[in-house]
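The protein record now logged underneath.
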Amino acid sequence: MRLLRAATLLLMLACGHAGAGPWEARSAQGLVLRLEQDSFRTRDGYLLSRRYPDGALDTQFGEQGSTVFTLGPDNEGPAALRLDALGRSWVAGASAGRGDDLQAVVLRFGPLGQLDRGYGLAGRSATRPGGHAARAVDLAPQVDGSTYVAGIVTDANGQERSGWWRLLPDGSLDRSFGLGGLWADSGAGSTEVLSIEGVAEGATRLRLRRGVGSDAPIEEWLLPAGSRMPQRAVAVTTAPVSALAAHNVAAAPQTALLSPGESASASGAGAAAPQDVASAQPAARLWLWAAVSVALALAWWAWRRR
């Protein structure tokens, strides 16, 4: 079962369905925080390390430069690593909960790398927003210790949809957000979470790619400061943003709310420019074939061992 889950995750990543943030982040002081797999020492384990720009471990962080952690049983690996303004590290992902349904998992670490024991259960928040199985794909931490989370939820019909929810400073679900604690995309077709991030005037922005392929339109949803329900927005100026590089964009484009009846299209301002994305397609195809090959090999080996 564990190998089949891993194979499924690889296929999702190869097809761009899972969206994901990077396993690396850089602090304002130039220190590099990085996630690494550590299954040799701890089952389903990972390392959060902090290094100086020259690559040397910062021995004041964690235990001699790193902290061992796990997302939980049957986890699919970290999806994103983010830093907040206070130097705390946040990790998003998913693991199996009751009944083997996936729970969205968020871990919070203190500035020196220790798990924040006052957050969730010993530093780990596991939620099913709206009562749905869910995966946390990306997050936007806030200074007060809360965070906005973007991910994938499974609706009552078994269909996966992009979702947005908020965790309170103690790691519990904010049920006043959206509808009962969850905003879920209800548009036609599939969507991919590209990023969620803070923008001007205390607002938060979620970017989704609707449809399949690099020329599919990019939608933006904006949550003004103090609001509980995201609103459809359209980018005035946009540039192609990949799921892995979304938080490395130096200047975020301005956004404007759409009035009822308006929509963003692939040829409008809310879409990525296909000619700029085309240069990245050969590398993407190589990654796709490699990931699919590994996933199929894992699935075949798991089937032989049954």
